[in-house]
Write a structure and sequence with these properties.
Layout (H helix, E strand, L loop, with lengths): L2 E7 L2 E7 L6 H37 L5 E4 L4 E7 L3 E7 L2 E6 L3 E6 L16 H8 L1
Antiparallel strand pairs: 1-2, 3-4, 3-7, 4-5, 5-6
Length: about 130
């Protein structure tokens, strides 16, 4: 621990510190920097990578017949696809070609199977309530 001496001159205190050796203070001074880097990774980099992977997965699952919204806000139905682009029909007879990266979200999907199990549909509480009423 540094030796601290005080000196009183005309109402002011002057602190003089003398260093008696570094010991383990080199590692301790780097600890806040390491903590900031780790914090930045968990708050910024990791969530961004997760969003990027989800968008790539969504864009790879888009199929013909899906209604999508582009990143610019245009709605359309996919009529053609290739490795790099998607052709949308915005209204009857109007076809627009976009890069796959422009797909923002899938509004309705015809290419992906739904996760609903039809065998359990007759046993749902909603259908029992309707049958009783």
């Amino acid at each position: 621990m540094p030796d601290i001496t005080t000196c009183h001159t005309e109402g002011e205190y002057v602190f003089l510190a003398t260093d008696q050796g570094s010991g383990g203070s080199g590692f301790i001074s780097l600890l806040p920097i390491v903590a900031i880097v780790v914090l930045m990774y968990f708050l910024l980099i990791r969530p961004q990578n997760k969003r990027r992977r989800e968008m790539q997965e969504l864009q790879s699952q888009v199929g013909v017949g899906d209604e999508i919204q582009t990143t610019s806000g245009l709605y359309g139905t996919v009529v053609e696809m290739d490795d790099e682009s998607v052709t949308l029909e915005a209204s009857p007879g109007v076809k627009l070609r976009f890069a796959r990266g422009a797909v923002g979200r899938v509004v309705t999907s015809t290419s992906r199977p739904t996760d609903v199990d039809d065998s359990d549909a007759g046993n749902s509480d909603a259908s029992k309530t309707i049958e009783q009423g």
